[in-house]
Design goal:
Elements (H helix, E strand, L loop, with lengths): L1 H7 L6 H21 L5 H14 L6 E3 L29 E3 L1 E4 L2 E4 L5 H4 E4 L10 E11 L2 E11 L16 E8 L4 E4 L3 E9 L4 E6 L9
């Protein structure tokens, strides 16, 4: 670890590098202590919370109990929120975020940036992706899905200033979200996007995909 710090610091260790090294060593000592067989049971309960918050798992799904935990370690089945009941009839487990591989998705109330996604409506890729904001992450029968509000198109008649820059995949959209919710499966998501507020009426949206989508 120290060699890595020196490599990025041009072989000169300063106050910042020392602080990083001390933080790394303290975290390693804490993990070692929590893994000891003689670690007190009360402290081991804290390990469960640390694992949920700072897990290094990169494969498959990883959830946070979020709305549904109500203080319990395991999420509980609850009735869907009122604005979700017309889409989901069964009881659901609500989550604050979902990790898929190295990508994190979150509901907008947890982390706005991680809630902004480009997705294929109904999974139809030929129609091209549309931007939206995740309001809920829910699980039914061990399958996770999102409920999303679309970013409304901008209809102010302004010319899109980004159209002349094909390698900068930004577009103008309305600053408002659709009031309607729609269910989006995890596999329908293309990527995240960045959203910059330009005025009270419209925003700039920049795709964060490594592959630029181009309509034919």
């Amino acid at each position: 670890m120290f060699l890595v710090i020196l490599l990025y610091a041009n072989n000169h260790a300063g106050e910042l590098e020392g602080c990083l090294l001390k933080s790394f060593l303290k975290a390693a000592k804490l993990r070692r202590w929590l893994a000891r067989p003689d670690c007190p049971p009360a402290i081991k309960e804290c390990k469960v919370l640390f694992d949920k918050a700072y897990a290094s798992q990169h494969d498959g799904y990883h959830w946070d109990a979020g709305l549904a935990s109500q203080g319990n370690i395991s999420p509980a089945l609850i009735s869907a929120p009122m604005d979700l009941q017309h889409l989901v009839k069964k009881k659901v487990t609500l989550h604050a975020y979902l990790k898929l591989g190295r990508v994190t998705f979150a509901r907008s109330s947890t982390h706005l940036g991680d809630s902004l996604i480009y997705f294929y409506a109904d999974g139809i890729q030929s129609l091209g992706p549309v931007p939206g904001c995740i309001k809920y992450i829910f699980e039914v029968d061990s399958i996770s899905s999102f409920t999303v509000q679309r970013q409304l198109p901008f209809r102010g008649g302004s010319v899109n200033p980004f159209q002349y820059y094909p390698h900068f995949p930004a577009d103008l959209y309305s600053a408002e979200l659709s009031p309607n919710l729609e269910v989006v499966k995890v596999e329908w998501v293309m990527c995240h996007f960045a959203r910059v507020v330009l005025t009270s009426e419209f925003v700039a949206i920049l795709s964060l995909s490594l592959v630029r989508y181009t309509s034919i």
